[in-house]
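Course assignment 3, question 2. Fill in each field.
Student: A.L.
Task: Predict the tertiary structure for the chain below.
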Amino acid sequence: MKRRVIPSEARDLPQGDRSRSFQYVVQAAWARSFALLRMTAYKTGRCKKLLLAFAILVASVALVWIALPRPPLLDGISFSQCVRDRNGKLLRITLTTDQKYRVWTSLPNISPALIDATLQFEDKYYRYHPGVNPVALVRAAFGLRPGGARSGASTIAMQLARLRYHLLTRTFRGKFVQIVRALELERHYSKSQILEAYLNLAPYGRNIEGVGAASQIYFGKSAGHLATPEAISLCVIPQSPTRRALFADRDNRSLDSALSAWYDRAKINRQFFARSFSARAQTERTFLAPHFVQQIVAAEKGRDEIVTTLDLAKQQLIERRITDYVRANRSRGIQNAAALLIDTRSMDVLAQVGSTDFFNGEIQGQVDGTRAPRSPGSTLKPFVYALALEQGLIHPLSILSDAPQSFGDYDPENFDRELSARSAHVTHSREAAIFPRLSSHPAASSHAL
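Answer field:
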């Protein structure tokens, strides 16, 4: 059973004083309880206010996140055309409208080694942050203090925003715009879309952009067939493309230093992948079958990948034969020649050589001799005679008049603009020699026509 305890001071007082003292004690206890209630209510109200403020903040952030406009990803970006022969061999990469080599390459067609190396070097927490890495931002902010260690904070999304929207990020305002743009990209596009766009716009030195063009120009292969050392060499270039671009004729110390830093950061023994690998560019830029490719590109605008009927092996064989022929007959005044090889069964163009040297201005090498209008001379005679034989207009013993004739306003004549009896006799004798050969090979004649 509980008993009420009265303080000794109150117990020793007289009866009247006891009652007043007891009243004071009760009032003090009530005051203390009320104070506790007020304190509890104050704390509760404060917590409610804090919760309400936090809820408003979260709602505001959510509304801002939802209201972020959808920015264009690759709209309006032009890409180069890759022209290949019938076996997939590269003939040429064209320049874009802004004079860049930029080959569109989808993410599944990019080497996983290049993707992993790029994320390891540029943004290893790419798949976990919303476009901005807050830890990296705080670390970079502390690095701005005098004597602080400078460190980068740009994510893949932030770098894509800088490249895509041509932002100046050296100022606080520019950096803020870059962050907002990165959040917009993350809001409306998937991680794969953002990474794909970045890998197609990243600078790789000089006027080369994107892994598709870089892998073709530097290593002569598509981005999906890069070896691991090649992929690592490419992944370090975008941070400093001017200093780290690959060269064919010399080593690049800046690139080698960046590669060593990558291997150290990844804790990988460089000797394990390539003991003698040295990143070098190709010595020659691909520019094959120039007249043929020029014609194809003009006709196939808008297509990024063009596979043609040309056979590169036959093309190069005919180019060598023409070069040798012109060299051997230069003393006779022959300086240029052209040739066109067609498969008569499918009418596919297998080779097209428009001139001996495309870059020789003295012979107007860029003029396509296979398409330039010119008088065929006597070249058409066998075909005309074969057609006449097929149609029954003449026979092998027919005698044709070799006299000047007029066809409307057209008066055909010899090159020397003369017609002698001797030349007519020679012509008749040649015709007589041609007829038996044509009549004995009617199939060849029909194919030739």
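Instructor remarks: The first helix runs from residue 8 to 12. The CA atoms of residues 120 and 266 lie 7 Å apart.
Grade: pending
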